[in-house]
What does this fold into?
Amino acid sequence: MSRLLVATRNSGKVRELREMLASSRIQLETFIDHPDVADVEETASSFEGNAALKARHAALATGLWALADDSGLEVDALDGAPGVHSARYAGTHGDDAANNAKLIDSLVGVRNRSARFVCVTSLANPAGELMATARGVIEGEIIDAACGVNGFGYDPHFRPVGEDRTMAELDPLEKAKISHRGQAIRAILPEIQRRVGGAQ
It folds into this structure.
């Protein structure tokens, strides 16, 4: 069975990826399985740049094929913020409650709530060479009241276009069909199966 390192410690991302790659014969590992691998500083100004940084770093650190993603929320009324800073918008990386509170506070009195989730995935070979990149986008709007308990991050405040539910109200399979991460993974999946192997 082929091995693929998913360059994350985010349990929500890992759960989604495992579901999407369940039909392949690829063994998924994460940084949880490689606690000695340090995080790389996300210094790029774009999702593409950060995804590439993380994939190359993970591959070189472990000698495995590595898949990394960078994703975030772009709000039109905030000139695209929080963008690449989505996970640390309020200052502490991964503090969903604080990030959401800052987002809603920033939109008090703002009528235009259009926004989008963006995800870029990158695949690097064991030598750290970038082999494939894919992008997914889902348009929607920000709502003030958090709704739903599924998902993570800004999901409870993001309602996709054409939906009357937030991302956090969708079940995992529904979310995977339309989400930015689902789109990006589906787009790069043929490259994973072709290059890493293990497709059934």
